[in-house]
Amino acid sequence: MSWIKRHKKLALFLALTLIFLGWWWQRSQFTPERWAAQPGERHHIVDDLLTQYGGLKGMSQEEVVSLLGPDTDGDQREERLTPDGREVRELLAYPIGSYGLGWGYLFVYLEDGAVTESRIYVD
């Protein structure tokens, strides 16, 4: 008697698990096409984007826009009060959909036209 015949339930469970893991892995893979086509589902692929592209660090603003498309409308800036005064940083903001317990955004910070940092914020 073969192993599969003796362990039908276990074999079925393992097969279904492999199918599910393959589907989940494919669903979480970043491609520029998926990013553009599914704005509300970006939360599934944003982590893979940051992993594949090293957090986008060092890329120019043009390269980021070429990869992800234009950001939200308006001139995005972050202002912080520091002991030395006020610090203003330019950024690109991309909505990524439901992330955790709120709506998520990918903030890409720029200095002299190049990416210095990227973060996910939940509103």
Structure report:
The chain has about 120 residues and is α+β, with helices and mostly antiparallel strands. Helices cover about 35% and strands about 35% of the residues. The protein is built from 5 helices and 4 strands; from the N terminus they run H-H-H-H-H-E-E-E-E. The protein has helices at about 5, 10-25, 30-35, 45-50, 60-70, and strands spanning about 75-80, 85-100, 100-110, 115-120. Strands 1-2-3-4 form a 4-stranded antiparallel β-sheet, with no helix packed on it. The longest helix is centred in the first third of the chain and has 20 residues, at about 10-25. The radius of gyration is 20 Å and the shape is elongated. The termini are far apart. The model has no long low-confidence stretch (mean pLDDT about 80).
SSE order and pairing:
Elements: H1 3-6, H2 8-27, H3 32-37, H4 46-52, H5 61-68, E1 77-82, E2 85-99, E3 102-111, E4 114-122
Antiparallel strand pairs: 1-2, 2-3, 3-4
Share in helix? 25-40%
Total DSSP E strands: 4
Query: How are the strands ordered across the major sheet?
Result: 1-2-3-4
Q: What would you call the structural class?
A: alpha+beta
Mean pLDDT: 82
Low-confidence stretches: none
Distance between the termini: 58 Å
What overall geometry do the principal axes of the alpha carbons give? elongated
Q: Which sheet architecture does the biggest sheet show?
A: 4 strands, antiparallel
Q: H/E series, N to C?
A: HHHHHEEEE
Strand content: 25-35%
**CA-based gyration radius:** 20 Å
Number of helices: 5
